[in-house]
Hints:
heterodimer, A: mainly alpha, 4 helices, globular, B: alpha+beta, Naphthalene 1,2-dioxygenase Alpha Subunit, Chain A, domain 1, Rieske Iron-sulfur Protein, 2 domains, seven-stranded antiparallel β-sheet, four-stranded antiparallel β-sheet, 19 strands, 24% strand
Amino acid sequence: xxxxxxxxxxxxxxxxxxxxxxxxxxxxxxxxxxxxxxxxxxxxxxxxxxxxxxxxxxxxxxxxxxxxxxxxxxxxxxxxxxxxxxxxxxxxxxxxxxxxxxxxxxxxxxxx
Amino acid sequence: xxxxxxxxxxxxxxxxxxxxxxxxxxxxxxxxxxxxxxxxxxxxxxxxxxxxxxxxxxxxxxxxxxxxxxxxxxxxxxxxxxxxxxxxxxxxxxxxxxxxxxxxxxxxxxxxxxxxxxxxxxxxxxxxxxxxxxxxxxxxxxxxxxxxxxxxxxxxxxxxxxxxxxxxxxxxxxxxxxxxxxxxxxxxxxxxxxxxxxxxxxxxxxxxxxxxxxxxxxxxxxxxxxxxxxxxxxxxxxxxxxxxxxxxxxxxxxxxxxxxxxxxxxxxxxxxxxxxxxxxxxxxxxxxxxxxxxxxxxxxxxxxxxxxxxxxxxxxxxxxxxxxxxxxxxxxxxxxxxxxxxxxxxxxxxxxxxxxxxxxxxxxxxxxxxxxxxxxxxxxxxxxxxxxxxxxxxxxxxxxxxxxxxxxxxxxx
Lengths: 112, 413
């Protein structure tokens, strides 16, 4: 587990390390390449602990995160990426939507 | 997820929804909108004469944060490319991307940071303000008039951090005159503070640029196109067809106010994220925003002629605001650029919460973009020659009227 450290108490989430992605592009790509069943499982596990996760992250300045804390943030960013799949669409892609893979993404001044 | 909806009628929403904005703005005319401007190559050529002489938003100052930062703005549909720079004194400059020696395109797109602007053809080098600095083997030329050989400047100015250029040799108006009432009305919105991080989505859409723009100038479609992404987001027992709360014509620009609805129930992650995003931002809205002072106001939508929209809120939709630029490529193709702006997150939790709003917004816009591409194909079939507009589509009529007017004005010059 040492290559994907997590804060004490959150170690069980290391099984979802593949969602520990630093950019929206990577998170979106992984969503598009996943099944709804895999996404639902990740959603279930993360939302079960979401208040603890936010309590932990809310206490930390965004700049200079320790690797374990940053990994927890990355997993939470991926939860957000897939939350609309579970809560709104029931499909990986937006139904009748423009293909997100044809969208170019860019960040100015932001992080992750 | 479907949950039974409790009916929560609201008389203030019913009253706002009953206003006939088309009658209030009867001077724009009535009757259907002609399809021809969306379809015609000739009309597109005429529009280019307008783009060549009007102020155009091409960046925000955050994209040119540090001295030496540059952004290349390619406006291929006009055959123009412009370099924006920031110099050490903090000023923003704009110059044509054309070397004074033999006309080469100096920079091939993109952004970066540099000490000088160099031409890769024969090594001519210019300062960030366009001044000619160095000519290799200068002795083999007749004596050069360096001042006359600076890069050709482009008129540039900023308003609230939005960078505008004007390609005319002598613009008919200053930027302040051009923006008119938009300037005073939004003083006080903390654009500087709330624009520090932005996330962009860009795509080339096979549709006329005005079809793309028009989709963001009305909320009539929200109930139908965004039923999954924004269930009961803008409509309910009261205001069932998502009428805007207020519509203003501001010269060639305009503004409308997007309604929320008391029956809206956020999804689990929407609700959780909103709580942890820090909620509403702590500043007083300028008087002009939420003009009707509705408790159900979500955001203003500002249209700046001819191709910019920006939608400031107080954090009702997680971020501060988003902006859209609709860049024509050809009559039937558009470069759509959307930028979503967020206040600087203080904690890792706030950053995680912001991501929800960002993803929901992106997914919602995907619903618009695919629809618009289909609409363009159908419009181009030529089956319909005109389109009836309802009272809440009045800003689309205003756009059509003002573009016709601007084309006539450009033709008179």
